[in-house]
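Suppose you are handed a protein chain with no further information: no name, no annotation, nothing but its sequence. What can you learn? This example shows the usual starting point.
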Amino acid sequence: MKYLIILGDGMADEPIGELGNKTPLEAAVKPSMDRLAALGRCGRLDTIPEGMHPGSEIANLSVLGYDVPAVFEGRGVLEAASMGVELEPGDLALRCNLICLEENRIKNHSAGHISSGEAAEIIAFLAMKMGNDRIRFYPGVSYRHLLVIKGGHKGLACTPPHDVMGTPFREVMVHPLVEEASSTASLLNYLIVRSRYLLEEHPVNLKRVAEGKDPASCIWPWSPGYRPQMPTLSALYGIGPSAVISAVDLIQGIGVYAGMKVIRVEGATGLYDTNYEGKAEAALEALREHDLVYVHVEASDEAGHEGNPRLKTRTIEYLDQRLLHPIMEATPHMKEPVTIALLPDHPTPCTLRTHTRDAVPFVIYKPGETPDAVNRYDEFSVINGSYGLLKGAAFMKALLAKQG
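A reasonable first move is to predict its three-dimensional structure. Written in structure tokens, the prediction is:
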């Protein structure tokens, strides 16, 4: 048996008046998702352990069946792994967003979805102005970058910028949780303020403003941690080789530590315009040589952060028609049967524009297994599914469980 997990990041939501009091999943035209629900068995999954933040890093580790409190060391270290940045003992890695400020408030977490080329120019400039043997900047994709502080302390309270849009930025700057982290917190806050001054007249920003786009006002470091100790999926579950397909450094980094082959697809952007067909083709190809393939699609999450329910609905329809449909057409003809699972990692409600910790809908289709009575895939239909409510690693165990 082969296993394919398709994860639509942030796909779950709440009923929205603009959509006739339906969620984007309910409003979307998604025949392939509904067909998968009718063929398989459904349920809900609680992906966020008690006391932990509902971030994609937490939720995706949970979906993959990890004991998250035991292995999680922050988002930055996972992205460092994806970028090929080797962390030494004592290196503190943090996600480093480029964000947009407006009247001293956080307007958005993405500098208006700045392009990777523009962002690389800005990160190189900041590295020249603020980098040294202790402070290192590494460019990533779009607004997502990496900051490494040699000898930094991880006892910090850092706020994800997508959680506090509209908030005065000085109210949510870095705070030490322990006295030993005070100097690290002060350094990070200095870098935020200093970057704001440096970027005010940067040519990339002047050009973006002239074009009516949001500038990259400053950096925003968050999710600190050290190099994690994680067993591979093979060691954890006794499965053969596995692969991950994603446009997002975070997910690729999880794949590196999980012992998965990281497959990068040309044209995969992390937005609504991502290469859905390319991801489908890559998934089918990867299934020939790997026992488990994890396909991550970021687009719905970004639409949720933008508070755009119609765009979010469209991203769901794209995933259905351009990724899931060709996969469902092809897998019955493969040499080995393929179990297909579909789920989000967490909700990203358009009205809130941030993640919540509510349980997410999932479906697992195993060829030859008797389906339950659910025939639509959305947040409410799956409540009647035969899996009921699962928590954390129970999803992975259900996925890999032998039939009968």
